[in-house]
Each structure stands twice: as structure tokens, then as C-alpha cells.
TrEMBL record:
<dbReference type="GO" id="GO:0007005">
    <property type="term" value="P:mitochondrion organization"/>
</dbReference>
<dbReference type="GO" id="GO:0003729">
    <property type="term" value="F:mRNA binding"/>
</dbReference>
<feature type="repeat" description="PPR">
    <location>
        <begin position="221"/>
        <end position="255"/>
    </location>
</feature>
<dbReference type="InterPro" id="IPR011990">
    <property type="entry name" value="TPR-like_helical_dom_sf"/>
</dbReference>
<feature type="repeat" description="PPR">
    <location>
        <begin position="326"/>
        <end position="360"/>
    </location>
</feature>
<comment type="similarity">
    <text>Belongs to the PPR family. P subfamily.</text>
</comment>
<dbReference type="Pfam" id="PF13041">
    <property type="entry name" value="PPR_2"/>
</dbReference>
<dbReference type="GO" id="GO:0006396">
    <property type="term" value="P:RNA processing"/>
</dbReference>
<feature type="repeat" description="PPR">
    <location>
        <begin position="291"/>
        <end position="325"/>
    </location>
</feature>
<dbReference type="Pfam" id="PF12854">
    <property type="entry name" value="PPR_1"/>
</dbReference>
<dbReference type="InterPro" id="IPR002885">
    <property type="entry name" value="PPR_rpt"/>
</dbReference>
<dbReference type="InterPro" id="IPR051114">
    <property type="entry name" value="Mito_RNA_Proc_CCM1"/>
</dbReference>
<keyword id="KW-0677">Repeat</keyword>
<feature type="repeat" description="PPR">
    <location>
        <begin position="186"/>
        <end position="220"/>
    </location>
</feature>
<dbReference type="Pfam" id="PF01535">
    <property type="entry name" value="PPR"/>
</dbReference>
<protein>
    <recommendedName>
        <fullName>Pentacotripeptide-repeat region of PRORP domain-containing protein</fullName>
    </recommendedName>
</protein>
<dbReference type="GO" id="GO:0005739">
    <property type="term" value="C:mitochondrion"/>
</dbReference>
């Protein structure tokens, strides 16, 4: 009898333990995401309550299993907001395969409609985060399957994605599909095409697209001309670049600082520094305010031509205007002043350089020392003995 009581008591205790574990298992299955436990309850959940539950999930690994559980509930109500929340959380966690699964579910979903904004968001995640440009293109072409059609916003996003990825061969295929997708070509679309053609080196075709604007009842803007001007400058065709600038003025399109900077930089790279300085003066007369990049390009030009004292004057103006010259311009100016043994000017530049947080490297210090000591020693032998001929690149 004693043995029987012990067995019965043990079985009863075991049964209670099993019931206790069973009752606590829902919370354990979500490993600390307590909010998801509410999906196990029988109480009715409104769509906004479901959104709060999923929004509070800390570990994205539980999102898909939680969604599966929710989809089996009697009060399941799929909404675009819920799918958007899931996709954004998965995208932030770089769980792109899980996003593919959500999109498979979404495509089969017949209980709610989806907006272009939802699909545009999906394309951005595919293109910008996942690097799955082909999937972004597929979403663009299958929007009608979701009950909506693309606008120029989605169409232009995909075009720009292809330009950024330098997939120039695909751009034409997408562009000619505009009528099929019901998209009207606008100025933004033409600007993207011009940018792509310029970056691919096809300047002639890009230039011809300027004639398409009136046909599409659109008007070019500064973003239309800047890539063309850059393309001609890169090829050293400055006559064509300046003709475009004149065309902008005739069509009352105001060039901005970026446009002028492109010209100044292009001229500087071809050694035409004086013309670059003239462009700086021209932009001032046009009422276009130069920015730090403008003065930096002129400064580089002066340094390239070893016009060091003019460069120091330009640098002094930049600093007085609250601008911060680059480390490279400081380095070039210090070395240039070393060559001309302009110790006082070099001392000023070094002080400004350190004040802006730049630390001269060892090789630069040796050249500075060589310059300073050479002012006080007549004999090259004495100079070589002091510097010990130690020079390190820097």
C-alpha cells in the first residue's frame, strides 16, 4: 500500500509538472518576445492591436513564425500596413530571403489591395539594401498583379537604380517599356537617361535627348545640363561645354554652383587654371554664390601651377570665410613653399594646418626642417650632416 501511494503521488506530481510546462510553453516559444504571446490568446485582436504586437517584436527571427500563427486565427485580417511593417523589419535585419517569402504570400493574398507606395518601398529595399536589382525590376513589371500600376516615380527609381549600378544595357529595355506600363515620360526620366548615356560615354546620344523635352511637353533644368557639361569637360571638349552653358542662359535656366564647379574642375585638370579663375569670376557676376568646393578647385589649380603665394592668399580667404581647406591642399602648399624656401609663409600654413586638425607626416617634417636649416647654413655638407639625408614619403 505504501509503494502504491508513492507511485500515485509521483504520477500526480509529474502530471502537474507537465500541465505547468504546457501552460508556460507559449511564452518560451518566442524566447522573450512577450508581446507575441498575445497571439496565443483567444481574445479578439483588432488590426491596430496586431500592428502594435508585431511592431514591438525585438528579435526579427520570430516574425515569420508569428505571422504564420496569426494567419491561422479566426480574426486574421491581412492589411498593407502589416505587410509593410514585416518587410521593413526584415529589411533592416537584412533577412532578404524572408522578404521573398512575404512577397510570395502577398501575391497570393486576395483579401486586401496594395498601393504603389507599398511596392515602391519593396523596390527600394531590393535595390538599395539587398542589391537584388532584378527583383526590383520584376516588381515594377508585375505591379498590375497586385491591383495597381506604376507611376513615373517607380519607373524612374528603377532607371536610376540601373544608372547607379552602371547597367547601361538594361536602361534602354526599361525605357521602351514605358508605354506598356502606362508610364508617361517626364523631365526626371529624360534626365536619368542623359546621365546614364554620359556616364557610358555616349555623349552624342545624350546631347540629342535635349530635343526630346519639348516633344514630351517637358522643360530641361540644371540637372539636365550638368552631366552633359561634365562629359564634355572630361573629354576636353570645352567649346561644347561652354555652348551648353550659353544655351542654359538663353533658356533661362540658372546654372548652380555644381555646374560651375564642374567647369572649373575640368579646366584645372587640363592645366587651364586661368580660365578656371575666370569662370569663378563669371559665376559671381551671375549672382551664383561659390561654395567651398569652388574655391578648393581654384586652390588646387594654383598649386598645380606652383603659384604658391597666390595659393596661400586663396587659402587665407577660405579660412577667413569659415571654410576648411583639404589636407592635400595643405600638403601641396607646404611642399611648394619648402621648394621656394618661403619660411614665414610656410610657418603660417603649418599653423593653420594643425589648427584644422591635420597632422603633418614624417616626410613633410623632414622637408620643412631641410628648408628651415638651409636658410642658416651656407655649406651643403653642413646641411646634409644635420638632416642626415633622412627622407620619408608623407
Amino acid at each position: 500500500m505504501i509503494l502504491r501511494r508513492i507511485v500515485v503521488s509521483s504520477l500526480s506530481s509529474f502530471s502537474s509538472s507537465v500541465r505547468l510546462l504546457s501552460s508556460s510553453s507559449p511564452s518560451r516559444s518566442y524566447s522573450g518576445d512577450d508581446k507575441l504571446v498575445r497571439l496565443k490568446h483567444k481574445d479578439w485582436l483588432a488590426p491596430n492591436e496586431v500592428l502594435k504586437i508585431f511592431d514591438n517584436v525585438k528579435d526579427p527571427r520570430f516574425l515569420m513564425s508569428a505571422y504564420e500563427h496569426y494567419s491561422n486565427r479566426k480574426d486574421y485580417q491581412p492589411t498593407e500596413s502589416l505587410y509593410t511593417l514585416l518587410i521593413n523589419k526584415l529589411g533592416k535585419a537584412k533577412m532578404f530571403d524572408e522578404i521573398e517569402e512575404v512577397m510570395r504570400i502577398v501575391k497570393l493574398e486576395k483579401r486586401c489591395r496594395f498601393s504603389e507606395e507599398f511596392l515602391y518601398n519593396v523596390m527600394k529595399i531590393y535595390g538599395n539594401l539587398a542589391g537584388r536589382i532584378n527583383r526590383a525590376i520584376e516588381v515594377l513589371f508585375c505591379m498590375s498583379d497586385f491591383g495597381c500600376w506604376p507611376s513615373s516615380k517607380s519607373f524612374n527609381f528603377v532607371l536610376n537604380l540601373l544608372v547607379s549600378a552602371k547597367l547601361f544595357d538594361e536602361i534602354h529595355n526599361i525605357f521602351v517599356s514605358a508605354p506598356k506600363l502606362g508610364v508617361e515620360i517626364d523631365a526626371c526620366c529624360l534626365n536619368i537617361l542623359i546621365k546614364g548615356l554620359c556616364e557610358s560615354g555616349n555623349l552624342e546620344a545624350a546631347h540629342q535627348l535635349l530635343d526630346e523635352f519639348p516633344k514630351q511637353k517637358s522643360r530641361p533644368n540644371v540637372m539636365t545640363f550638368s552631366p552633359l557639361i561634365r562629359g564634355f569637360c572630361n573629354k576636353g571638349k570645352f567649346d561644347e561645354a561652354f555652348k551648353l552653358l550659353e544655351r542654359m542662359e538663353k533658356e533661362r535656366i540658372e546654372p548652380d554652383a555644381i555646374t560651375f564647379n564642374i567647369l572649373i574642375s575640368g579646366l584645372r585638370k587640363k592645366g587651364r587654371v586661368e580660365e578656371g579663375i575666370n569662370v569663378l569670376e563669371r559665376m559671381k557676376l551671375k549672382g551664383c554664390e561659390p561654395n567651398p568646393g569652388t574655391y578648393q578647385e581654384v586652390l588646387y589649380g594654383l598649386l598645380d601651377k606652383k603659384r604658391n603665394l597666390e595659393a596661400k592668399e586663396m587659402m587665407s580667404k577660405m579660412i577667413s570665410w569659415g571654410m576648411r581647406p583639404s589636407f592635400l591642399s595643405y600638403k601641396k602648399l607646404v611642399l611648394g613653399l619648402c621648394e621656394s624656401k618661403s619660411v614665414e609663409e610656410m610657418d603660417w600654413v603649418l599653423r593653420q594646418m594643425v589648427d584644422h586638425g591635420f597632422v603633418p607626416k614624417t616626410g613633410m617634417w623632414w622637408k620643412v626642417l631641410h628648408c628651415v636649416v638651409s636658410k642658416n647654413y651656407d655649406s651643403q655638407a653642413d646641411l646634409d650632416r644635420i638632416t642626415d639625408r633622412q627622407e620619408t614619403p608623407g
